[in-house]
Amino acid sequence: MSQERIPDAAEAAFPDAPAFAEAMAELEAILRRIESEETDVDALATELRRAAQLLELCRAKIRRAEVEVTQIVQRLEPSEP
Prior knowledge:
With about 80 residues, the protein is mostly helical. The chain has helices at about 10-15, 20-35, 40-75. Helices cover about 70% and strands about 0% of the residues.
């Protein structure tokens, strides 16, 4: 009973999108660099832009997972007679 997975808009915008765990790890690394002031001012905008992309991607993946879980639960619920 498998359904073909259709990428949502955020995933389509990032064709080489990392998996959720990889995106979170990269986001955490960016935050550590910014908080520790490792990122120089010239690279700050680039780092923040990438962080925003990763946040958008992670949120889209969470929304998709919520929808898929809801659909699965609905299929498993007994139908009303």
